[in-house]
Specification:
The protein has about 550 residues and is an alpha/beta fold. Helix content is about 55%, strand content about 20%. Helix 6 runs antiparallel to helix 14 and helix 7 crosses helix 13. It starts with a strand and ends with a helix.
Length: about 550
């Protein structure tokens, strides 16, 4: 429930505060006084596009704030806190600031937030219905969306299942079209890919093989010099006749051993020399083993050089590294399968048939749900129209296949609402089957039924009673009051018959001193409501007849 709304420098309103309560609240005022600014403020708090023209002339910025109580069990509080905002005793503060230069800032729970978050949060908190919604519902796509919303979970579940199937069907169909349209280009690319694959597969390179071959080639090409170096080093370490370096180390070790145990420092040096002797022995053995292992094989060298040349040729075409060559091969193998028209087309055509069948089955189930929902929607609108003094009017919801026979993103159906105002009249499209007053009542009935299908705690109606008067106006007020038994209802109206049914009444007062026009919002109670209703009835609040009629309306509403 919306508890408090504050407006500052918004349009003609300088400063205004509305303390909102449960039940039915109306806002009235003379034409041009700015009563729709309250609805505009709600729109800004719902993330609507900011317009610098809304900033009051002479002010640097306009500000709108609201305190809203969250429904029990709502997860909105978690979303607000995740965005950095705070929730205080189940309520949040929403805000929007518009600068005269066109900039806009949004606040959720006291924290700065994108305007899109306002939309997300308030979508579950309020539903606004105005004359623009009436024109919107004249469009076929909006009529289908309205029916789908009324159908609820049975249809939305099917739509969730249908949409990915339909999306994949579109993707497959588009790929088939591309394949058939680009046959020559695909054939050329296919030849190039196949030739490259044949070149690479003829060599069959392995990961890091080029580095391994280069190392092997170096060893084979310099085998003699490598053996000679190893043997010379071996002789220098342990060779005859003098025993090389190992013999000198052994002599030094023997000299130190004679003084063993005399000084710990010298004993430590003796140990290090002993380790040197062991290391020299190991090096001697390893050098001898290395010299024996070096392969002198001209035939193998030629083979290695030939394979290196083949790999280098691949690197020049598909490299620069062997990893790039192998990646190109993997990519091309997949591309060949994709480019091979016969195989790909056959597979895609099979998938297309299966997807088409699956999508058609889901679409048929959605059609059945829509048809049933259309009957229920028409019946409920009929009840509402009877309450709005149109007992013989009827709405027909037609669900039929799309004219082109294709599947769309919402299935195979097109929906059209037809209306007949009287018995014997042929139902016609909404924009041709009703007068202005009849259309207003029909749209109000539709809105009431559609809103009733949504569990929204606050409903706002912006002059949806335009073109209505007399008994029908009384029934509009009565219907809004009944809606207010389960939801908070806020209505901007010019009809005294509607205003009389309100639990709370706000009046937008306009003050024009010839230079500046200002408006303020005041709460009306008791005789103030009588005066306002009299003004709405007769254009003047001091008319005895109008005041008597106003009191009669209030008595009727209380009954």
């Amino acid at each position: 429930m919306w508890q408090h709304i504050r407006l500052s420098s918004l349009g003609v309103i300088d400063e205004a505060e509305l303390e909102l309560g449960e039940g039915f609240t109306v806002i009235t005022g003379e034409t041009g006084a700015g009563k729709t600014m309250v609805v505009t403020a709600l729109g800004l708090l719902r993330g609507a596009r900011a317009d610098s023209g809304l900033v009051r002339h002479g002010s640097g910025q306009a500000r709108v704030e609201a305190t809203v109580e969250l429904p029990d069990g709502s997860a909105l509080g978690e979303q607000v806190e995740e965005a950095g905002g705070s929730v205080d005793d189940g309520t949040i503060v929403l805000g929007r600031v518009l600068s005269a230069q066109g900039r806009s800032r949004a606040y959720v729970g006291g924290a700065a937030a994108p305007a899109a978050l306002l939309t997300t949060v308030t979508d579950e908190l309020v539903a606004v219905h105005g004359q623009s919604d009436q024109h919107r519902l004249l469009q076929a796509a909006e009529q289908r969306a309205a029916l789908d919303g009324f159908a609820g979970a049975p249809l939305s579940t099917l739509l969730d299942e249908y949409r990915p199937v339909h999306a994949r069907l579109l993707e497959v169909s588009q790929r088939l079209t591309r394949i058939r349209e680009d046959a020559q280009a695909r054939a050329r690319e296919l030849d190039l890919r196949r030739f490259g694959l044949a070149e690479i597969d003829a060599v069959e390179p392995q990961a890091d093989e080029d580095e391994q071959l280069q190392a092997e080639e170096n060893r084979l090409a310099h085998a003699e010099s490598l053996v000679r170096a190893a043997l010379t080093a071996h002789e220098g370490l342990v060779g005859e006749p003098d025993g090389g370096a190992r013999a000198f180390v052994a002599g030094a070790q023997a000299a130190l051993d004679e003084a063993s145990g005399q000084d710990p420092a010298l004993d430590a040096l003796t140990g290090r020399l002993r380790e040197v002797a062991i290391e020299l022995d190991d090096l001697g053995l390893e050098l001898s083993s290395y010299a024996s292992s070096v392969e002198m094989d001209p035939a193998r060298l030629a083979t290695v050089q030939e394979r290196r040349a083949a790999i280098i040729a691949l690197l020049r075409k598909y490299g620069p590294t062997l990893a790039d060559v192998l990646a190109w091969r993997e990519e091309s193998a997949a591309a060949v399968e994709e480019l091979d028209d016969e195989r790909v087309v056959g597979r895609l055509e099979t998938e297309q048939r299966e997807l088409e069948k699956q999508a058609r089955e889901l679409a048929a189930r959605m059609t059945a749900v829509r048809e049933q929902a259309g009957v229920e929607l028409a019946a409920r609108v009929q009840d509402e129209l009877s309450a709005l003094a149109m007992p013989h009017a009827r709405l027909t919801v037609q669900v039929r296949p799309r004219a082109d026979g294709r599947l769309g993103t919402t299935g195979a159906d097109q929906v059209e609402m037809l209306f007949a105002a009287n018995n014997g009249a042929e139902p016609r499209p909404l924009h041709r089957g009703a007068s202005g007053g009849e259309l207003s009542r029909l749209m109000l009935a539709l809105e009431v039924v559609l809103v009733d299908a949504r569990d929204v705690p606050t409903l706002v109606f912006d002059e949806v009673d335009a073109g209505i008067g007399g008994r029908a106006a009384v029934e509009v007020g009565r219907r809004l009051a009944r809606l207010a038994r389960r939801s908070q209802v806020l209505a901007v109206t010019h009809l005294p018959q509607v205003a009389a049914f309100a639990d709370h009444h706000f009046h937008v007062q306009k003050d024009d001193d010839g230079v500046v026009t200002r408006s303020a919002v005041v709460v009306l109670q008791g005789d103030q409501r009588v005066d306002e209703l009299a003004r709405m009835l007769a254009g003047q609040d001091d008319s005895a007849a109008a005041q008597a009629h106003a009191r009669e309306l209030l008595d009727l509403a209380r009954e």
